[in-house]
Amino acid sequence: MATIYDVARASGVSPKTVSRVINRDGAVKKTTKDAVEKAIAELGYVPSTAARAMRSNRSGLVGLITGAISLSPSRTDNSGLPDLFIVQGIQKAMESSGKTLLIADTGGRMDRVPELIRTFEEHRVEGLLYVADHHREVSLPPVSKTTKLVLANCYDTKGTPAVVPNDYQGQLNLVKSLIAKGHRRIAYLTLSPRLVATRHRSAGYKDALEAAGIAFDSSLLVAADIDNPDSDAEVQLLWDAIDRVLALPEPPTVICFGNDRMAMRAYGILRSRGLSLPEDLSVAGYDNHKLITQTLYPTLTSAELPYAAIGIRATELLLGMINGTTDEPSAPILVSGPVTPGNSVRNLPAPITKLSSIGRTTQ
Questions:
Q1: Residue 55 needs a FRET pair 20 to 30 A away by CA distance; which of 76, 95, 266, 296 works?
Q2: pLDDT at 356
Q3: Which residues are CB-contacts of 94 (< 8 A; sequence separation ≥ 6)?
Q4: Cα gap 233→339, rounded to integer Å
Q5: Do 154 and 230 have their domain in common?
Q6: How far, CA to CA in Å, does 167 sit from each of 94, 105, 173, 177, 228?
Q7: Is the dihedral of CA 109, 113, 118, 119 positive or negative?
Q8: What pLDDT shows up at residue 58?
């Protein structure tokens, strides 16, 4: 295997000059640089990152811990869009950083996380990213003082820097867009009430109604999902929730569903009841999972869950912390996404105000 001394001899310069070319840490003439790079290519020389890390105390490595790789292809739980999209966002943000991203998958086992953190620190990573499968609270073992840590799609009680979706704003914007189309009887069939996202989105739903002067009706807010994936139970709960809101004396004109997967199932349930979408009933989802929203007929209106942006923001935060150019945030960074309109929500005609005769009696 070629060494730095072999490259120096082949290019006619000193090993120190070769080091400056490799590390780009000093001025070198272009002719010298070209000669060194030619020798490196001809000899197949590979610089030792371990040796450079020992000299500079910077490994150039960033670790990523996720369960996205092993679980995303077949997942059907409440996470909605696969957290693989967060990982893709991280990869995009890392491309121009000059650092190397090392990825470790948990295989869905949280008990593996301490071991993975320890392994990454043994390899002297400069920073760690932890990606959760859905917006939730986590509890990770402590990392060393020299290792920066950023959480993506999750947070903890220790104040670790975190980037999470703004679920409150997403549902608020979605309901406001429905109100703008003339809807005032708006049902919301939620994911499990235990989820952090459900709590925030329910608050956004209520505040959007209040801002429009629409009284909150608790019979229109119904949990239609459970924590543990069970396809039979999920369909039964969803059918029952739909049945409950449509049986109300004043049924909704639009139903918001906890995610696009739930909305997709609802299309079949509603059509089996003889309803035409959106002529008889409008429907909205959450996630903007394009494989669902763009293939359904009619296309589905949905609030975007900005997973890619979460990954990018988390990576930018971590790199800034590593380089000393960004302070650690005192609270989780919230990332919002737009409402993507589809053809599943129709405009309602403005109500007609009936005027009685003034000043005379009519028969």
A1: 95
A2: 46
A3: 62, 101, 315
A4: 29
A5: no
A6: 26, 26, 10, 15, 21
A7: positive
A8: 64
Asked if residue 313 and residue 301 are part of one domain, the reply reads no
Within a domain: 252: yes
Q: How many CA atoms lie within 13 A of 313 on its CB side?
A: 19
Domain that holds residue 97: 61-165+308-337
How many structural domains compose the chain?
A: 3
Asked if the structure places residue 159 within a domain, the reply is yes
**Pair 300, 250 in one domain:** yes
Q: Does residue 107 sit in the same domain as residue 233?
A: no
**301 and 333 inside one domain:** no
* Structural domain includes residue 346: no
**CATH number reported for the structural domain that contains residue 38 in this entry:** 1.10.260.40
Give residue-wise pLDDT tens across range 178-222: 999 999 999 999 999 999 999 999 999 999 999 999 999 999 999
pLDDT at 161 over 80: yes
